[in-house]
Design brief:
Layout lengths: L1 E6 L20 E5 L5 E4 L5 H12 L5 E5 L5 H4 L14 E7 H4 L2 H8 L15 E7 L5 E3 L2 E8 L5 E8 L2 E6 L23 H18 L4 E5 L4 H6 L8 H11 L3 E5 L7 H18 L2 E4 L5 E3 L13
Parallel strand pairs: 3-4, 4-5, 5-6, 10-11, 11-12, 12-13
Antiparallel strand pairs: 1-2, 1-14, 2-3, 7-8, 8-9, 9-10
The chain binds zinc ion (2 copies).
One zinc ion binds next to helix 2.
Length: about 300
């Protein structure tokens, strides 16, 4: 299995001179098995270029596409109306999302393409869109891919995915805050309320379920939006730091951590510093830390393969 990053930013796209090397498009990852079967994770603005590539590869023929959404914040769905295969008659696009969001997912996606916002409403698009609910912990097979949804701590909830295929395994963990404030049920301002005992128990259970799902994965792509200084100012926004991601990954024995969902304000030079700092820190914790950039493809190693000294 390998994964290719088409969008690595959080919040909103930031194309421009200061983001040329790491990229300015929002969340989107293409996943390929050894037989080149495909699944797409998140549909931020990076999806547009991926869709163009997929349409070229198919020669304009209809196909079936699976899109796993972490949640429906703009930076994770804004590419959907610009996904070229949606305009090829006979194509089916299956969209998977969190139970609470998916209850109205057709209306959510339909809403962003209402005629006030977009010239082609969802019901007029030639492809057939099918919406499916996912539930944390309930595995499903999408062709060759075994997909396990994981509950995350983000305003109104978000879903991570562990994806297993070809004897290799990786996880997509975005968007999520660490597990010391309740964010997943409500608007982020409510996360500032003092914690009850039940809250503490629920957060601890959420964190241990995440660590348990990450055990045995080779690579974790993780929301590391904030530096520690920024996190201290915005702890209720629903995002993590590389330190918090490293803590979880080291505990779960993850081989490689990929820093992802970069803050839109981080320039290429700042990203270089972050990448160097955490590559060094990762070495001290036995985790290879790499920083996602647009266009990067990573091969996912075999589960349980012995670690060669200095190997990725
Ligand atoms: Zn996001
Ligand atoms: Zn979000």
């Amino acid at each position: 299995m390998d994964i290719t990053f088409w969008g690595v930013r959080g919040s909103y796209p930031v194309p421009g001179a200061s983001t040329v090397r790491y990229g300015g498009q929002t969340s989107c990852v293409e996943v390929r098995s050894a037989s080149r079967a495909c699944v797409i994770v998140d549909a931020g603005t990076g999806l547009r270029a991926l869709g163009n590539k997929l349409a070229r590869e198919s020669g304009g023929a209809p196909g079936n596409y699976n899109v796993l959404l972490s949640h429906v914040h703009w930076d994770h769905v804004q590419g959907l109306p610009f996904f070229s295969p949606a305009y090829i008659p006979g194509t089916t696009i299956s969209v998977y999302a969190l139970l609470t969001a998916a209850n109205e997912l057709d209306q959510v996606v339909g809403g962003i393409t209402r005629h006030e916002f977009f010239p082609m409403p969802l019901e007029a698009v030639p492809a057939s869109f099918q919406f499916h609910q996912v539930e944390p912990g309930v595995e499903r097979m999408l062709g060759e891919f075994k997909v396990t949804p994981i509950a995350l701590n983000h305003p109104f909830g978000s879903i991570g995915y562990r994806i297993d295929a070809d004897g290799s395994s990786w996880a997509y963990v975005s968007d999520t805050a660490p597990f010391d404030q309740v964010l997943h049920k409500q608007h982020f301002l409510a996360g500032l309320e003092p914690l009850t005992t039940d809250d503490r128990t629920a957060l601890a259970a959420m964190r241990s379920a995440l660590v348990a799902r990450l055990r045995g994965v080779h690579t974790a792509v993780y929301d590391t939006h904030f530096t520690p200084d920024e996190y201290a100012r915005f702890p209720h926004y629903g995002h993590s730091t590389p330190d918090q991601a490293l803590e979880v990954c080291a505990e779960a024995g993850v081989r490689r951590l990929v820093l992802y969902h970069h803050a839109p304000s981080h320039t290429d030079d700042q990203m270089d510093q972050i990448a160097a700092t955490y590559a060094a820190l990762g070495k001290t914790r036995g985790v290879d830390v790499v920083t996602a950039c647009e266009g990067m493809t990573l091969a996912i190693g075999q589960v349980g393969a012995p670690r060669a000294p200095g190997a990725a």
